[in-house]
Design brief:
This protein is α/β, with parallel strands linked by helices and 647 residues long. 27% of the residues lie in helices and 28% in strands. It folds into 3 domains: 324 residues, TIM Barrel; 40 residues, no CATH class; 238 residues, Phosphatidylinositol (PI) phosphodiesterase (TIM Barrel, Alpha-Beta Barrel). The strands form 6 sheets. Strands 1, 2, 6, 7, 8, 11, 12, 15, 16, 18, 19 and 20 form a 12-stranded mixed β-sheet that branches. The chain has an 8-stranded parallel β-barrel with strand order 21-22-24-27-28-29-30-31, surrounded by 4 helices. A 3-stranded antiparallel β-sheet has the order 3-5-4, with no helix packed on it. Strand 27, helix 12 and strand 28 form a beta-alpha-beta unit. The termini are far apart.
Length: 647
């Protein structure tokens, strides 16, 4: 009786302590009469809401649903019937139209801002402002969606398929940084006219999503006798990303619907695939954070009761339908191999897989025996795909990297490869914003909506730095750079409580870090200093510390040693108003030079943040003796400091 009782007790405990999962059903790729869809936006939203969706991104080609837009309705019977349904459903007080001579008919398309409140309900239904950026290269169509876009993104050209994609991805990243609005790009239907290969996708920076399954009849999800299907591409891309230390690519299911009144394999219909997102709430930010953390699965019909992904384990339970059979495949790549294989297969509704030491990455695929209604291709059955997990890899250092004592990577965690991009460009100072949540420090620009174990200070910075130092074998981050690099940790939560957590984390990496007793320090491979909400009193009381403080100009002259306060920082705008246009005013250069003199007199380094990203400004900062150029433009600053960029 005792073992059974203990087992029951454990199950109750796990049930009570396991984080609750909140699943939201959504489609991120669909079209309306604003571009090449065949129905009105309100009719489309009505269908999705009635069919159990919680969020939809209506993503018309190269346009946003904004402004005053009228369309001519052709006299074709099916187009007139579409209008009549629209008029019957929403009524003449809602629908604006004009009739004219020769049976002409014009209808005003309602912009998103006019109709979204009709459908949206907190926690129940959300419309994401989206766009399908559509362009091409040498006749190959190249399309990518932007979810939760703020401003229209006009397609950019390029000199190759990969460059076209990258230029448009960079435009999305730039808008996200400039506006602060969460958004992400994803690559649409790579096999649409066989336009995009796995090799093209492997070259991309900042891209985290592509469509592993799209319901359009022309997208060749399964490949053919000579060309890869999207699943094979997915595993190949992720092997390359893993080797390079990049975040994994996640696979989306979308229906890419265009046709709402004609059904069959030759049409692009709603309901062929979607995503199920485990998010704490139904908001754009929470959905995007959850998807970027891989907390979702894609499906053409299979629903999961639960799905758990940890660093090395996937466990799932299917919401079973009577008389339907399920096969659960764990697909992955083993060390020393290039191709994915089925690592384990289970017949049933529950399964789990823990990665072996020989596994590099793994994902789950759930295949049912239930035929898909209105399938993408004859013979399709309802299927679901989890997102992959992988073991952290420490990539080989790039050859020829020159360490740059004056380069500070601002918001390094927003780069394509947090930490590795900074190191590959030779940066010797790196910044991470942290939020304390319980006993863990999470790296993010804004307070996270949930606790993502992959986005901790330890996982994004300390473990990788330890791995790089071990690989070098000489207690250095850069083999030929004897000085420590700086890791600036910007506290976004309470100074003392955050410091207590940080001190415990740093203790695990003591051998790598500069360690101080009073003003006597033993240099390590990494010198940590704290910015933001600074725990000044707590550090003063510490007999031994593994971190210093980021100073402010007001701290100068107060007797703080350079060991205790190695850097002095301030916002560029607090010191200077010159933005690089025309010559720098002499009085501003004198003010800057005086600040540099005062900082250097105390043996400290000066960093100005939020400075114009302009080589003209950087040149004056360096001329005056400012130590760190704080930047998000890693390549530009590297080239500037090496004398390769514009003067």
């Amino acid at each position: 009786m005792k073992p059974a009782f203990l087992t029951l007790l454990c199950l109750v405990f796990l049930t009570q302590t396991a984080p609750a999962q909140h699943w939201y059903k959504g489609n991120l790729h669909t079209h309306s009469l604003w571009s090449d869809g065949d129905d009105y936006p309100e009719m489309i939203m009505d269908w999705y809401k009635a069919n159990g969706y919680h969020f939809v991104g209506l993503s018309d080609h190269n346009t946003l649903q904004e402004g005053d837009r009228w369309i001519r309705v052709p006299r074709a019977p099916e187009r007139r019937r579409t209008f009549e349904r629209y008029l019957r459903t929403f009524g003449p007080d809602w629908v604006r139209y004009q009739t004219g001579p020769n049976d002409s008919l014009r209808v005003r398309l309602k912009p998103l801002d006019e109709y979204r409140s009709y459908f949206e309900e907190p926690g129940k239904f959300l419309i994401l402002k989206s766009e399908e950026v559509s362009t091409g290269f040498q006749g190959k169509p190249i399309h990518m969606n932007v979810t939760n876009v703020k401003n229209l993104i006009r397609p950019l050209p390029g000199n190759s398929v990969a460059e076209v994609m990258q230029n448009n991805i960079d435009a999305v990243v730039a808008q996200r940084r400039q506006t602060g609005q969460p958004m992400f790009p994803h690559i649409n239907h790579p096999n649409f006219y066989w336009s995009i290969t796995a090799d093209d996708l492997m070259q991309l920076r900042y891209e985290r999503f592509f469509e592993v399954f799209n319901g359009h009849p022309l997208v060749n999800n399964y490949g053919d006798s000579t060309r890869e299907g999207t699943e094979a591409m997915w595993d190949k891309i992720n092997l390359r990303f893993l080797q390079q230390g990049r975040p994994l690519m996640y696979g989306l299911g979308t229906d890419d619907s265009h046709h709402y009144y004609f059904f069959g394999p030759e049409f692009s219909n709603s309901g062929r695939a979607w995503v199920m997102v485990d998010a704490p709430e139904l908001t754009p930010r929470a959905l995007i954070e959850a998807m970027e953390a891989g907390r979702f699965y894609s499906t053409s019909g299979v629903t999961l009761e639960s799905l758990t992904r940890t660093a090395d384990r996937i466990a799932l339970r299917v919401k079973a339908i009577p008389d339907v059979r399920y096969r659960i495949q764990f697909i992955g790549i083993r060390k020393g191999r290039e191709k994915a294989e089925i690592l384990r297969e289970v017949n049933g509704t529950e399964a789990e897989y823990t990665m072996a030491d020989t596994d590099l990455l793994v994902r789950a695929k759930i295949i049912s025996s239930k035929p898909k209604y209105n399938p993408f291709q004859a013979g399709d059955v309802e299927t679901a795909w989890s997102q992959p997990i992988a073991r952290m890899q420490v990539p080989e250092p790039l050859a020829g990297v020159v360490p740059l004592p004056n380069a500070h990577a601002h918001n390094d965690y927003e780069q394509s490869r947090p930490l590795w991009d900074a190191l590959d460009h030779g940066f010797t100072s790196i910044e991470a914003d942290v939020f304390q949540m319980g006993d863990t420090l999470y790296v993010a620009h804004n307070r996270p909506t949930f606790r993502n174990p992959a986005h901790t200070l330890e996982e994004l910075y300390l473990k990788p730095l330890a791995g790089r130092i071990r690989r070098n074998g000489n207690q250095r981050v850069y083999k030929d750079y004897e000085k420590p690099i700086y890791l600036m940790i910007d506290f976004k939560t309470g100074a003392d409580s955050t410091y207590r957590v940080l001190a415990k984390v740093l203790e695990r990496y003591r051998s790598l870090l500069t360690t101080c007793r009073g003003d006597r320090c033993r240099p390590g491979a990494v010198t940590v200093f704290i910015s933001g909400n600074r725990p000044m009193e707590a550090l003063k009381k510490s007999k031994e510390r593994l971190a210093g403080l980021d100073g402010r100009p007001s701290d100068l002259g107060r007797g703080y040693s350079s060991e205790w306060m190695p850097v002095v920082s301030d916002a560029y705008g607090n010191q200077l108003s010159w933005r690089g246009q025309g010559p720098m005013p002499e009085e501003q250069f004198r003010k800057l030079s005086d600040l540099v003199r005062r900082v250097h007199a105390e043996g400290k380094k000066l960093r100005l943040w939020a400075c114009p990203e302009d080589p003209v400004v950087w040149a004056k900062l360096r001329e005056a003796g400012a130590d760190f150029l704080s930047t998000d433009q890693l390549e530009l600053v590297r080239d500037f400091l090496l004398g390769k960029g514009p003067k």
